[in-house]
Each structure stands twice: as structure tokens, then as C-alpha cells.
Automatic annotation (TrEMBL):
A GO MF label: oxidoreductase activity
Matching NCBIfam families: CobZ_N-term (TIGR02485), PRK08274.1 (NF006130)
Domain FAD-dependent oxidoreductase 2 FAD-binding: start-end pairs: 3-429
Source domain of life: Bacteria
UniProt cross-references to SUPFAM superfamilies, sorted A to Z: FAD/NAD(P)-binding domain (SSF51905), Succinate dehydrogenase/fumarate reductase flavoprotein, catalytic domain (SSF56425)
Any Pfam family the entry gives: FAD_binding_2
Annotated protein name in UniProt: Fumarate reductase flavoprotein subunit
Cofactor needs: FAD
Enzyme Commission identifier(s): 1.3.5.4
Keywords assigned by UniProt, alphabetized: FAD, Flavoprotein, Oxidoreductase
Length: 469
């Protein structure tokens, strides 16, 4: 019998499989996607948010535990488990040597408009390279891997794992790690979670999925219906404002629109609806998808002028360009008079001090609702640009409740041999909101914990299994 069964194929699942195998356990990993699409949402990631008390290899300055915690506390609005969050934060400071051992490479610190050279370590080649490195290492170490094997049910004996089922196949193991992702690709579940709004719209019908098409949430729903303790709001997610022309699935990072803080955002009625300069973009980019989802038709428009060009990561598709505001409104299909009025009102309210996009500067608006608290400059330098925005769901926050040993709970009691990691438990730390790179921090920390604990629960006494030369 296999010692440890890992269900899932992304970062958390791979970390669990590698740690269990290092401990000496036999490991079978079941990935629902074909080999070419393996890796879940991890293939679209770029970086890992890391605590560090002083400059380290690819990280500049310091990013201490308390600052990391305060950043997380702010974006989640306090909807987070502090004990588990601090566990993730501390684990983020020590995981990179282990990642390198399994083939992950990091690139030199980034600077400029991304503002994350101090807080985030970037993967050389992005998430796809990270996933491929982990798979190579797992295969070399003897982890068995099955692709195109979606698990739809778990057999339990009370609170103990017995077997997993994929169609007519049955997989038994001494212990199991669940790391099969959320339900963001399940349109019906998204409709159920978001419901119908006061305008009679079903917002979820206009959502795009930034990540994998294979996260249908089948296993997550099965576990909740089977009595596993759940945590999180099903309508909360990592939800980014992305290019409305993005593909339905797997658009990834290149579909993000990063110029929001450099201009204004209006809805289809050409009205502003939120403070575009609230905070640094890496701390606020993941609230804009939800904001757009709450607007009529679930669409918004990011508007900039020529002053912003070169200050943000350009999206893969060029925006609409015009020499005048009325012309831009026509190209975007916005009510012309209202659009011009909105921009003029914004321009008149700007109080420009010393513009600095790398700091929370003193450029702000006065007498305008909503205000823009930083980086407020009049949009008066032609040409003007506009990007249509749609909500882009990366992953959902509804998950299974865990403790610091990554154990699944049933009626408040932790299972002795069933563990969970990654998106399936991220809601313990992320009740809402997001800050760049923290999803990979959660998946890496709890994937490693789950793998270690699963091997221990399987009765493994010795470790030191190494990759073949």
C-alpha cells in the first residue's frame, strides 16, 4: 500500500509530495489535468512573498514579521487566523534553500514600478518553471505521478481517510493530502455563491478565470458535504481586474491591467467608484476585480494619459488610444458628456505636490467623492488611453478548516491521517483581499507541513531519500 496519496498537481501538492518522499514515504500524486496543463494555478504565478530581517540573496533591505503581518491584516480586514498566518510568514523566511534544492531558481531583485524588490522573491522563468522543476525532482526521487485522474470522492472511516475514488478507480493509502484547488472554474458554483444582484444580473456570468480550467471544486464540495469543517465566504476570492478581452481560462499575469493607480477607473456610466490611489498596487490590485464585479454589467474602464506610459507593466493587448477625451469615450462606448465631465471634475480636484509612484506621495484630490489619496495628477496630456476591465478570478477562498499540522477537521476534531494544503485551505489565512505572492507562501508552508505530517502519520521512521543523480 502507498504511504502517502497526494491529490492535486500544483505548488502545494508538489511541496507535500516532495516532503513526504524526503521523509522516506512512498508517494502517489494524482493530477486532474493532462501533463501539458499540469500545475494548476501555480503555473501562472511569478513570486513568493518572503519575510526577512535583513538583505538576503534576491531580496533587498528587510521585511520583518510584524510588517508582513500588518500588511496581511490590512488586506484581509482582520478576517484571518493570526496563529496560522504567522506560521506562514515565518515559514516564508526559510523555504528558499529547500526550493533551490529541488531545482527552483530565483532572479535578481526587481525594481521600478513593481515595488516588490523588498518583499517578494521572483522565480526565474515564472511559475511554469517552478512547477516543472518540482515535477522533475519528484520523478527523480521516485514519486509516482498520474495525470488526467480527477478525484471525485473520498472514502472515510469516521474521521480517518481510507481511499480516494476517481470514476471507477480506487486508490488506497495510509495517509492522504488534499491539494486539489478551489472552485473558480465551476461557473454554476460561482453563480450560486454570488447570486443575483439588485439589477437582476448574475455577476458570475461575466467573470473570466485567470487560472486553470481544471479547478471545478468537485473534491472540495464532496468534503464539505461529507462533514469536513469549512471556512471562508464562497463569494470571496483572489479577484483581479483584467483585460476584458482576455481568454476565458488561463490568461495568467499578462492579462492584468496595472495602470489603475496612475489614472482613474470609471464604470459603464462613466462614473468613478473607488479610490484608485489607496495604497501600493501589489497590496491593492486584487481588490479591483471584486469592485468591478459590483458595477453595472461587471465592467470598468481604466483611463490614463501619456504621463503614465512607461510607469507600469504593459498588458499584452494595447488599449484604446485617442487624442481627445470625447474620442476616447466613443471608442470605449461610454456616454461622452458624462465621461468628459468625470475627467474634468477629477482634474479640477487634483492637488499635485511631488509625484512619486514609488512612495505614498502627496498628490491627492480635494472635494471629490470618491477621493484619490495618492498619485493624483490631472489627465490632460494627450494621447489618452483606455482599457476595458472584467473581474478575473484566480482562486476562491472557501476551504477546509485546518490547524498548524494541516489536519482536516470533522466536527472540530482533527483527522489523524487526512491533511490539506494550498487553495483548499487558504481561506484560513485569507478571509478576503490579497497581497502579491502570499498565495504561494501559504501553499509552500502548508504543503511542506502536510507532506511531513502525512509521512509521520503513515508510520515512516526514517528519511533521507534523495534524487537520483
Amino acid at each position: 500500500m502507498i504511504d502517502v496519496l497526494v491529490i492535486g498537481g500544483g505548488n502545494a501538492a508538489l511541496c507535500a509530495a516532495l516532503m513526504a518522499r524526503e521523509a522516506g514515504a512512498s508517494v502517489l500524486l494524482l493530477e486532474s489535468a493532462p501533463r501539458a496543463w499540469r500545475g494548476g494555478n501555480s503555473q501562472h504565478t511569478r513570486n513568493l512573498r518572503c519575510m526577512h530581517d535583513a538583505r538576503q540573496d534576491v531580496l533587498v533591505d528587510a521585511y520583518p514579521e510584524e510588517e508582513y503581518w500588518q500588511d496581511l491584516l490590512k488586506v484581509t480586514g482582520g478576517i484571518t487566523d493570526e496563529h496560522l498566518a504567522r506560521l506562514v510568514i515565518r515559514a516564508s523566511s526559510t523555504c528558499r534553500p529547500w526550493m533551490r534544492k529541488h531545482g527552483v531558481r530565483f532572479q535578481p531583485p526587481l525594481s521600478g514600478a513593481l515595488h516588490v524588490a523588498r518583499t517578494n522573491a521572483f522565480f526565474m522563468g515564472g511559475g511554469k518553471a517552478l512547477v516543472n522543476a518540482y515535477y522533475r525532482s519528484a520523478e527523480a526521487m521516485g514519486v509516482q505521478i498520474r495525470y488526467e485522474t480527477p478525484v471525485d470522492a473520498i472514502e472515510m472511516d469516521g474521521d480517518r481517510f481510507v481511499a480516494a475514488r476517481s470514476g471507477h478507480e480506487r486508490f488506497t493509502a495510509r495517509t492522504c493530502v488534499l491539494a486539489a484547488g478551489g472552485f473558480e472554474s465551476n461557473r454554476e458554483w460561482l453563480r450560486e455563491a454570488w447570486g443575483q444582484n439588485e439589477r437582476g444580473e448574475w455577476p458570475a456570468d461575466n467573470f473570466l478565470i485567470r487560472g486553470t480550467r481544471f479547478n471545478q471544486g468537485v473534491l472540495l464540495r464532496h468534503m464539505i458535504e461529507s462533514g469536513a469543517d469549512a471556512i471562508g465566504d464562497p463569494s470571496q476570492s483572489h479577484c483581479v481586474a483584467i483585460d476584458a478581452r482576455a481568454p476565458l481560462y488561463d490568461g495568467g499575469i499578462c492579462t492584468r491591467i496595472d495602470c489603475v493607480s496612475l489614472g482613474i477607473v470609471v464604470n459603464r456610466d462613466a462614473e468613478r467608484f473607488y479610490d484608485e490611489g489607496e495604497d501600493f498596487w501589489p497590496k491593492r490590485y486584487a481588490i479591483w476585480g471584486r469592485l468591478v464585479a459590483q458595477q453595472p454589467g461587471q465592467i470598468g474602464y481604466s483611463i490614463i494619459d501619456s504621463q503614465a506610459i512607461g510607469r507600469f507593466m504593459p498588458p499584452v493587448f494595447p488599449g484604446e488610444k485617442a487624442d481627445t477625451l470625447p474620442e476616447l469615450a466613443r471608442k470605449l462606448g461610454l456616454p461622452e458628456a458624462q465621461f468628459v465631465r468625470t475627467v474634468q471634475d477629477y482634474n479640477a480636484a487634483c492637488r499635485v505636490g511631488t509625484f512619486d509612484h514609488t512612495a505614498l506621495d502627496d498628490c491627492h484630490t480635494e472635494g471629490l467623492t470618491p477621493s484619490k489619496t495618492h498619485w493624483a495628477r490631472p489627465l490632460d496630456q494627450a494621447p489618452f488611453y483606455g482599457y476595458a476591465l472584467r473581474p478575473g478570478i484566480t482562486f476562491t477562498y472557501l476551504g477546509l478548516k485546518v490547524n498548524d499540522l494541516a489536519q482536516v477537521h470533522f466536527g472540530g476534531k482533527p483527522s489523524g491521517n487526512l491533511f490539506v494544503a494550498g487553495e483548499m485551505m487558504a481561506g484560513n489565512v485569507l478571509g478576503k483581499g490579497y497581497t502579491a505572492g502570499v498565495g504561494m507562501s501559504i501553499g509552500t508552508a502548508f504543503g511542506r507541513i502536510a507532506g511531513t505530517q502525512a509521512a509521520k502519520a503513515a508510520g515512516i521512521k526514517t528519511g533521507a531519500v534523495h534524487a537520483e543523480a
